[in-house]
Specification:
By secondary structure, this protein is an all-beta fold. The protein is 0% helix and 44% strand. The termini are far apart.
Length: 94
Amino acid sequence: MRALRDLVIVRKEKAPERIGLIYVPESSDDEMAPPYTGEVVSVGPMVQDPDIAEGTRVAFNDLAGQLFEYEGESLVLLAEKNIAAVLKKDAEAD
């Protein structure tokens, strides 16, 4: 499987239900929807940001992508412009 054009395929990480002792409810308000994170599985040939590569963790708005299932795995298809941030890997942390 490979992404086309400026599209990116991301394996969505499960959002935590709790952060420490604080319960994090899912929001039904579109404007208050939190960003989600995931690992990039495939990058289209027209993606211009060199930091977006296979294996990179990224943050994106849950409403931006198209969910689909491939070989029993839930994935998200996003346009490059809908990726809000490239997250540092543990080895790159300051």
